[in-house]
Amino acid sequence: MQAQDSGVGRRLRSEKRAMKELQDSSQIAATLRANSRRETGWSTVADRSADYGRLRAPGFEVSGSDLTTFSTPVRGQLTVVESGKDIPFFIARIFYIYGATKDCERGAHAHRETWQSFIAIKGNFSLELTDGYLRNTYMLAEPNRVINVPPMIWARLYDFSDDAVCLVLASSLYDPVDYIRQWDDYVSLVSEGPVRPK
What we know:
CATH superfamily: Jelly Rolls
Strand order of the largest sheet: 3-11-8-13-6
Shape: globular
Number of helices: 2
Number of strands: 14
Largest sheet: 5 strands, antiparallel
CATH architecture: Sandwich
């Protein structure tokens, strides 16, 4: 009986540590968000890799990168995604989209505080991002590439291939208050923010 209790106790302590780490990462994200509100200006950033154009939200930048992939002829490929390395946040939620038709549109909203990362696990789809002023469209077609999207960037997914599977990693749990679902509301919010240089 004692061994079973200590196993339960270890599991509870482990869960408490994981929750503490998640809360700490949320505090870091909140600090980053607070600092971002002090930034001024919106701008495009020259794309160093030529694979990804970048939009800039106050204090944050849309970015893309190739994920570390290990490959052997017999064993196939293993792609690694790590919080704080490939993904600029601690992952609190994971969801995936599949079975979307060619004429389906997903997303079409922005998040007030949540970061998201998009990966085409299978097939391909288009990801359109805008900061309310500039727009970039990405064709995601490789499972070893990721697009990281900060808060306050409007995202729209469309043009799904028949076999498309879109994996989304998010920095927070689902909260309907975090969503900005109406385009006019979004435009109003970004226009109240930092002044965009001409």
